[in-house]
C-alpha cells in the first residue's frame, strides 16, 4: 500500500491504541493518556503537513484519490483534531472520570473518516466515510449520559443524521439507475455533452439534500443550534468546524470538478445553490441577533458563514471553488479558538451565557483581545482575514453577474456587524456581573487566542500564503487519468 | 396479472412510496422508537431501489452497496437504541416532544 494512506491509518491506530491502553493499564497509572493523545495528534499533524506536497497515486480501484483538494484539507482536519483533543482533555467529566481515555480517543475515528471523505472519488466511498464520521459523532454528542441536554443533542443529531443518510443512499440508488456508476470520473465522461436526464437531476437533488443537512444549510439547519448547545463543547467544535468543512469540500468536489461538473447540470443547479445560499445567509444572520448563549450564537454564525460559502459555490466556477477553500481556513482560524475559550468559560462559570463575558476586557486583557480579533474577523472587518474571505465571495458573485446574491450578501454582512459586536460590547463596555468567581483563564488559552488573532491579522494584511494554498487545492489529481485499475 | 410484467419502474415507484412513508414517519410521529423505525424504512427503501437497479441493469455494484447500507444501518440503530435507553432512564419517556431541554 502506498504511503499516502498514512494520516488515516495513523489516526485509527492511535485511537485504537489509546482505548487498548485504557483497558490494559491499571487504575491510577493512566495520567499520561491525555498527554499521549495530544502528542499523537501533534505528530500526525506534522506528518500530514510533510506529506501534503507530494504527488500520490490512487488506490483501491479509484475509490480513493489524492489530489490538491484532499492534500490541503487533511491537515485542516488533523488540526481540528488537535484542537478537539485540547478541549476534551480539559472537559470536566464529573462521575464519568473513568471513561476519560475513551472520551479522548474517540475523536480520532471521525477525523480518520473525514480524511477518507475528502479523498473519496466514488459515492459509495463517500457514504462509508461519511457514516464513520456521523456514527462516531452521535456517540460523542451523547457522551455525557447523565446529562439530559447531551442525550437530547445526541438523539437529535442521530435523527437528523439518519434522515440525511437516507437521502444520500436514495440518491446513490437513483444515480446507479441514471448513470450506471457512482465513480466520479466515469459519470463525468459518460454524461459529458449529453442533456441531463430527469433521473440524474433527481439523484443530484437527493444527494444535495443529504449534504445540505451536513453543512446546516437552510431549510435543513434546524438541528444545529440545539445540538451545538447540548453537546459537549469538543463535539460542538468538531461539528461546527470539521464536519461543516467536510460537507463543503464534498460539494466543491462534486459540483466543482467531480461527478456533476457538467454544463447540463449547472444550468439547473446553479439557481438552486444560489437560492439556498441567499436563504441561509439571511436566516443565519437574523436569527443570531437575539441569541444569549455563546454556543447557539456560534451555531447561527456558522449557518451564516455556510450561506456565504454556498453563494460562492453557487457560481459554479473555479473562482467560486477557490473562494470556498480560502473561506473554510478563515472560518477555522476565527471559530475554533472561540470554542476552546467556551470550554474554559464553562469550566469557570458552568454555562456558555454571553453575560459571563461582561467585564472581561478589564479582568483579562489578553483573552479579551484575542476573542475580539476572532469576533471581528468573523464579522469581516478589515484588515482581518475574515474581511478578505467575505470580499472574495463578493468579488466572485460580482464577476459571475449574480446581483441578487451579491446584494443580500452585502446587506447581511452589514447586519452581521451588529451581532458580532454583541460579545465585544459585553467584554469592554459592560460592568462585571456581581458574583463572578475570581478564577482566571489558564495561560495556554491566552496564547492560543493571541496566536489565532495575530494569524488573522497577518493573513488579512498579507493573504499570499492562503492564496498559494488555494491555488494548490485546485490542482488536478496527478494520476486521475493514467491510473491502472 | 393486473399490472402486466413487473419492470424497474414498478420497483422504483414502490421504493419511492416507502421512502415517503419513512419521511412522513420521521417528521410527524411523536415516539422516538417509531421515528427510528421510520429511519430504517428510509434506508430499506433505498436498498430496494439499489437491488432492483442492480438486477435490471445487470450491475453487481449496487447489490454489493446494499450490504454496506445494511451494516451501517445496524450500527446506527444500535447506537440510537442505546441513547434511547439512556434518555428513558432520565426522563421516563420516549416521546419526542418531551425532549425540550434545548429551547431558545
TrEMBL record, chain A:
Molecular function GO labels: NADH dehydrogenase (quinone) (non-electrogenic) activity; NADH dehydrogenase (ubiquinone) activity; quinone binding
Cellular location(s): Cell membrane; Endomembrane system; Membrane
InterPro entries documented for this protein: NADH-Q_OxRdtase_suN/2, ND/Mrp_TM
GO BP: ATP synthesis coupled electron transport
Transmembrane residue ranges: 6-25, 32-52, 72-89, 101-119, 125-143, 155-176, 196-216, 237-262, 268-290, 297-316, 328-345, 366-385, 405-423, 444-462
Subunit structure: NDH-1 is composed of 14 different subunits. Subunits NuoA, H, J, K, L, M, N constitute the membrane sector of the complex.
Function: NDH-1 shuttles electrons from NADH, via FMN and iron-sulfur (Fe-S) centers, to quinones in the respiratory chain. The immediate electron acceptor for the enzyme in this species is believed to be ubiquinone. Couples the redox reaction to proton translocation (for every two electrons transferred, four hydrogen ions are translocated across the cytoplasmic membrane), and thus conserves the redox energy in a proton gradient.
Protein name, as recorded: NADH-quinone oxidoreductase subunit N
Originating species: Verrucomicrobia subdivision 6 bacterium BACL9 MAG-120507-bin52
Gene assigned in the entry: nuoN
TrEMBL record, chain B:
Enzyme class: translocase
Biological process (GO), any one: ATP synthesis coupled electron transport
Catalytic reactions on record: a quinone + NADH + 5 H(+)(in) = a quinol + NAD(+) + 4 H(+)(out)
Main location: membrane
Pfam families in the record: Oxidored_q2 (PF00420)
Molecular function terms from GO: NADH dehydrogenase (quinone) (non-electrogenic) activity; quinone binding
Coiled-coil spans in chain: none
Superkingdom to which the source organism belongs: Bacteria
Membrane topology: Multi-pass membrane protein
Transmembrane spans: 12-29, 41-58, 64-88
Subcellular location: Cell membrane; Membrane
Keyword set includes NAD: yes
Gene Ontology CC, one term: NADH dehydrogenase complex
EC number(s) given by UniProt: 7.1.1.-
Keyword terms of this UniProt record: Cell membrane, Membrane, NAD, Quinone, Translocase, Transmembrane, Transmembrane helix, Transport, Ubiquinone
Subunit description: NDH-1 is composed of 14 different subunits. Subunits NuoA, H, J, K, L, M, N constitute the membrane sector of the complex.
Family that this chain belongs to: Belongs to the complex I subunit 4L family.
Function text: NDH-1 shuttles electrons from NADH, via FMN and iron-sulfur (Fe-S) centers, to quinones in the respiratory chain. The immediate electron acceptor for the enzyme in this species is believed to be ubiquinone. Couples the redox reaction to proton translocation (for every two electrons transferred, four hydrogen ions are translocated across the cytoplasmic membrane), and thus conserves the redox energy in a proton gradient.
Protein name: NADH-quinone oxidoreductase subunit K
Encoding gene, per UniProt annotation: nuoK
